[in-house]
Amino acid sequence: MRAPYTKHLGLAAVLLAAAVAACSGDEDPPGNEPTPDAGNPSQGDAGTPDAGAPDSGPDAGPPDAGVPDAGPPDAGTPDAGPPGTVVIPNKLSDLKLFTGTPATGDFQPVAGNIPYELTTPLFSDYSLKSRTLYVPDGKKALYSQNDVLDLPVGTIITKTFAFPADFRQPDKDVRPLETRILVRQPSGWEAYPYVWNDALTEADKAVGGKVFKNFEFIDAEGVKKTFDYLVPQRNQCQKCHHEVDAQDNQFLVPIGVKARYLNREHVYDGQPVNQLQHLAALGKLGGLPATGVPRAPNAFDVTEATVAERARTYLDINCAHCHNPKAQPGITSRLFLDIKTTDEFSLGYCKRPGSAGSGVGGEFDIVPGDHSTSILWYRMNTEESGKMMPEIGRALRHDVGSQLIADWIDAMPPQSCK
Question: What pLDDT, on a 0 to 100 scale, did the predictor assign at position 326?
Answer without folding.
Answer: 81
